[in-house]
Amino acid sequence: MDDTSEPATLREKAYASFTRHLLARDLRPGQFVSQRELVAFTGLPLGAIREIVPRLEAEGLLTTIPQRGMQIAHIDINLIREAFQFRLFMEREAVALFAVNASDAEIARLRREHEDMLAQALAQTPTPEMEARAQNIDWAMHDTFISALGNEIIAKAYLVNSVKIRLIHQERFRIDGRVVPVMREHLAVIEALESRDPQKAVEAISRHIDNARRLALQI
C-alpha cells in the first residue's frame, strides 16, 4: 500500500465532514470557528484541518479574518446572485444535452418519481418527512443533469456551488409548503425532455431556477 495516499485521504475526509456538518446546520453561515473546533466537529487530526483551510477559502466556503479567526461563508445578496448565475449557466447547457442524450427509461423514471411526489403532496397535509423526500427529489434531478455530462471538472465545480445553493435554501427559503409548485416546475422540465426539445428544456429549467433565485432575494 502507498503510504503517501493517507494524507490525501484524511484531507478528503476532513473536507467531506466539514461540508456535511455545514449542510446539517451544525455550522452556520457567518459563524466564527477555530481550527480546533473543526477538529472536534470532524474528529480528524489538526493537520488535516489545516490542509483543507486554503481549499475552503478558495471555494468561498470559509474566510480568514485577522484577529477574529475563520468565518463560515455569509449568505448575502452577492453570494445569492453569483451562485444562482453559476447554476443557471451550468444547468442550461446540461439540460439541453440531457434532452438529446438521455434514455427514454431515465426520463420516464424522473416522471414517475415526480408524479408520485406531486400526488402525495396533493392528497395529504405535508409532513417534514414528505418535504424532506421532495427536497431530495428536487436536488437529485439537477444533479442528474450535471452527472450525465460525464465531465469531472464541471462536476467538481458544480458540487462546490451546490453546497452554497443548499445553504441559501436553508437560510432564505425551503421547500416547506412549496412541494406542489416545485414538482410542477420540474414536470414542465420533464415534459420538455420527453419532447426531445433542447430549447424548450432550457426555457423550463431557466424559469425554475429564476423562481428559486427570486425567492432567495426576497428576504
From TrEMBL:
UniProt entry keywords in alphabetical sequence: DNA-binding, Transcription, Transcription regulation
SUPFAM superfamilies assigned: GntR ligand-binding domain-like, Winged helix' DNA-binding domain
Pfam families linked: FCD, GntR
The keyword Endoplasmic reticulum is assigned to this record: no
InterPro entries, sorted: GntR_C (IPR011711), TF_FadR/GntR_C (IPR008920), Tscrpt_reg_HTH_GntR (IPR000524), WH-like_DNA-bd_sf (IPR036388), WH_DNA-bd_sf (IPR036390)
GO molecular function: DNA binding; DNA-binding transcription factor activity
Residue span(s) of domain HTH gntR-type: 8-75
Signal peptide: none
PANTHER family hit by this protein: GLUCONATE OPERON TRANSCRIPTIONAL REPRESSOR (PTHR43537:SF24), TRANSCRIPTIONAL REGULATOR, GNTR FAMILY (PTHR43537)
Name of the protein in question: GntR family transcriptional regulator
